[in-house]
Amino acid sequence: MDTYTATKNRILQLCGQHNITINRLATLSALPPSSIKNILYGKSTNPKLITIKMICDGLGITLCDFFNTEEFNNLEPEIK
To answer: Between helices 33-40 and 49-59, what is the axis angle to 10°?
Structure first.
């Protein structure tokens, strides 16, 4: 799995866990809905860390919480 897919999956997973929509996540994160939708729909395949941090802040979790998943722990190297 690549980093982009893991990031997209994690955002969707967290929305499901918190029972919120993408638009609600955007509101909680003080981001335009298009920023999150661009990540989810592949228009932004390399989101900035600050965007991920804002998503975490909106959900009340840490960056460590966001990235501490089996998907992220088992990513293939980006440089081959």
So the answer is: 110
What does the block give as tokens for 71? 């998907």
DSSP letters for the chain: --HHHHHHHHHHHHHHHHT--HHHHHHHHT--HHHHHHHHTTS-SS--HHHHHHHHHHHT--HHHHH-SHHHHTPPPS--
pTM of the full structure: 0.93
Tens-digit pLDDT profile for residues 16-42: 999 999 999 999 999 999 999 999 999
C-alpha–C-alpha distance, residues 11 and 45, integer Å: 13
* Cβ pair 42, 76 in contact under 8 A: no
